[in-house]
């Protein structure tokens, strides 16, 4: 009986240790991967993302004057159609609490 309990406990302990080692090896692999040189395709991808980050200031990257002209024309049309306002911001909604009448229990 005691021997059976010992085997069950050792089995549980073994599975817990195996799980912990798997997690640690997985994390270590990610950490060591960053230290190594990247794959050329990954490096090209990251370089392009960094390039776009340096170019962009929250707008469309490499947008020419034609794009800006079309954008302003479309914004003017929408403002005329929907009655003005700032179309670049999400509208704010207010939902007032409804007044509820209490009903007396019968």
TrEMBL record:
Tell me the superkingdom of the source. Eukaryota
Instruction: Kindly indicate whether the keyword Ion transport belongs to this entry.
Output: yes
Q: Where is the signal peptide?
A: 1-18
Q: Which InterPro entries match?
A: ATP_synth_f6_mt, ATP_synth_f6_sf_mt
Nucleus as a keyword of this entry, yes or no, is no
Per UniProt, subunit arrangement is: Component of the ATP synthase complex composed at least of ATP5F1A/subunit alpha, ATP5F1B/subunit beta, ATP5MC1/subunit c (homooctomer), MT-ATP6/subunit a, MT-ATP8/subunit 8, ATP5ME/subunit e, ATP5MF/subunit f, ATP5MG/subunit g, ATP5MK/subunit k, ATP5MJ/subunit j, ATP5F1C/subunit gamma, ATP5F1D/subunit delta, ATP5F1E/subunit epsilon, ATP5PF/subunit F6, ATP5PB/subunit b, ATP5PD/subunit d, ATP5PO/subunit OSCP.
This chain belongs to the protein called: ATP synthase-coupling factor 6, mitochondrial
Q: Taxonomic lineage per UniProt?
A: Eukaryota, Metazoa, Chordata, Craniata, Vertebrata
